[in-house]
Amino acid sequence: MAATKRDIIDKLQEQILSLQGFKPVGDGPAMDFGLGEISISFPGKVFPLAAIHEFLSTNLEDAAASGGFISALLSTLMQKGGLCLWISTQRKIFPPSLITFGLSPERIIFIDLANERDVLWASEEALKCESLAAVVSELDEISFAQSRRLQLVIEKSRVTSFIIRKNAEKLSSTLAAARWKISALPSGAIDGMPGLGFPKWNVELLKVKNGLPGNWTIEYCGGSFNIVRETVIENREIRKAV
Amino acid sequence: MMQKRYMSIWFSTLLTDWIRIKRPALKALPLVFSDKAANRMVITAVSREAALLGIHQGMPLADARAIVPGLEVIENQCHKSEKLLKAIGEWCIRYAPLVSIEEDQGLILDISGCAHLWGGEREYLREIVNRLRGLGYNVRAAISDTMGTAWAVSRYGKITPIVKSGEELNALLSLPPMSLRLSPLASQKLIKLGLKTVGSFISMPRSVLRRRIGEESMERIEQVLGQKDERFTPITVPQVYSARLESMEPIRTRKGIELAIEKLLTQICAHLEKDGMGLRSAQLQSYRIDGKMIRTEIGTNSPSAHISHLFKLFSLKIDQIEPKMGIELFTMEAVKVEPLDPRQEALWLAEKGMEDQKVTELLDRLAGKVGLQAIQRYLPQPHHWPERSIKKVDSLREGLSMPWRTDRLRPVQLLKIPEPVQVSAPIPDYPPMLFRYQGITHQVKKADGPERIEREWWLEEGEHRDYYQLEDAEGKRYWLFRSGHYSSEKTSGWFIHGFFA
């Protein structure tokens, strides 16, 4: 009896999602990003591909944390090969470090541009190319209209876009499927040894379209995410509406 | 084989015409160019007005000044003539693909198969001569089967500038011996002997003539008569993969230029594909009606013979082509071609990979707008020094020559130039307790290090670096280093170099 109820609820949820305009990715089995509990927050419990993911990082420390998190996601995304474009102005990403997150740096093509306008243009052009695995763009800000342009392109090409927003003070709403904030947390000691532990992040999923926002503490060790603790958000039901 | 036809254009007063176009105030004045030769000034070019007053080339400037006191003299400019001829020659490519510079201030055009486009040789010649005269140059031109005859008729001919095939000899009969491009000595000798026209000696037995004027002059005569081939060295060698498009009406619109580019690309790509080649870089020349030529270049990241892709690259640059009055001729050539690997196409379709054509096309498009230097890809290099541990490669295909190092943790964000920080460290070779960066004091809670990285002394001089990985109270992780050894005499320089994830 309980099982059938569960089925009915799942089906109803699916219907609601489709009414909300969410289309599940049709091609092949869903990719497992090893995000564990976090996946529950996504619509259909699947990490939304072919969508825009925003990462807020106002300082270099956060940018480093976001860079690590994105690289870990990219390494899963690029398992089957493919290339990724990293478009930015004043890039500081140090390619050799990305191998720590399972991402082969030689498979990333960095586009270093002089101004924001070029970054937007290049991102749009890049997202048109369905052969890419993903496009990472570092931007100061992005307006709703600009994000819609990117979204329209993505809907055709099905490429996943990661946007690192370096200026989170002027936060405009966008068409992003998810808005993340990754910040560093004090690392735990490895086997009680002194020195630095594995990278530990506070992962905040501030907004997620058709899903539930949340807050987790994640440790990245040995090529996989370990969820250490989930921070309960009060009034989850209210924050759900995006 | 098609009968070769040549056109010779003679610029009798090239330099003086040129200076008059530049400085119209000099018009109608007796004008000469003079250059230093053997410690004195010698006339090197004479305008028609000056020639009428008895000034000729090779005369000392002082003598010329004595004849015409108000003579306009342009000094030390005679080297310009070759440059000028080359420029005019390039301009003439709109009439014939092969243009060469000939002796005595002239151009020779290989016009085989070109003249009918202008409605016949007479119209063709008239068009070119009128255009050049319109620009302000005194020119005479002649068309013939051999370069020598065309040269002779353009300089000395009196009847018709067009010599029909096989009538070279007839056209030459009444001309002086100089018209055969003989050495001055040989022609003087002939005149001294009373042989004042070509007709008077051309039928003499060869052996007799040879004894009088020498082997070299005999060769010249044979060349003029077409009995011996003459070398033709064009100023620009036409590219193997090239196409040209003349427009009936001058093109002024973007749409028109687009159509022209597409047509040219279709021609070139068909040719390339047949040979299994792909374009790496191509050049489009747009010849404007006012005599200007605009060059547009594109480059690709990997050989391509895709019309639509190459067209996109050009279309990014159409804005640079300013048609002004209109463009009358487009030529396109493949500057660099590389063999196109036929297997590539199949690979691209199969799996997302390095050799993805769509990605290279995307990169070409990006490079076309923002420049190739904006696109970077990195491979590891066998160096410990962080700044040198990677090398930039510009090819998508180049694979790893060594694996990426995983034994040492490197920061995700690296500052291009390390920034100085204030640090308090308890004892030598211990990690700092706290450091101050951009006005914020960070309490160090955890630390790893030092990792000493020596400077590669064979590459550059300087201090080594002792790197520490630090974590502050908030859990933010930094990469700091001390430059050089700890010393009690001076405070050591500490720098921040990166940020860990």
Walkthrough of the structure:
The complex is a heterodimer of chains A (242) and B (501). Chain A is of the alpha/beta class and 242 residues long. Chain A is 28% helix and 27% strand. In chain A, strand 7 and strand 8 form a beta hairpin. Chain A is globular and about 60 Å long. The C terminus of chain A is likely disordered. Chain B has 501 residues and is α+β, with helices and mostly antiparallel strands. Chain B has 14 helices and 20 strands. The chains are: A alpha/beta (242), B alpha+beta (501).
Fill in the keyword field for this structure.
heterodimer; A: 242 residues; Rossmann fold; nine-stranded mixed beta sheet; globular; disordered C terminus; B: Alpha-Beta Plaits; Dna Ligase, domain 1; seven-stranded antiparallel beta sheet
In CATH, the topology of chain A is named Rossmann fold
SSE pattern of chain A: HEHEEHEHEEEEEH
Low-pLDDT regions of chain A? 235-242
Major interchain interface with per-chain residue totals: A-B, 58 and 55 residues
Mean pLDDT of chain B: 84
Gyration radius from CA atoms of chain B, angstroms = 36 Å
Q: Tell me the strand percentage band of chain A.
A: 25-35%
Main sheet: strands, sense, barrel of chain B: 7 strands, antiparallel
Q: Radius of gyration of chain A over alpha carbons?
A: 18 Å
Q: Structural class of the secondary structure composition of chain B?
A: alpha+beta
Give the oligomer, counting copies of the same chain as homo and different chains as hetero. heterodimer
Helix percent of chain B reads 25-40%
Unreliable runs of chain B: 343-355
* The CATH fourth-level homologous superfamily of chain A: P-loop containing nucleotide triphosphate hydrolases
The first-level CATH class of chain A is given as Alpha Beta
Count, helices of chain A: 5
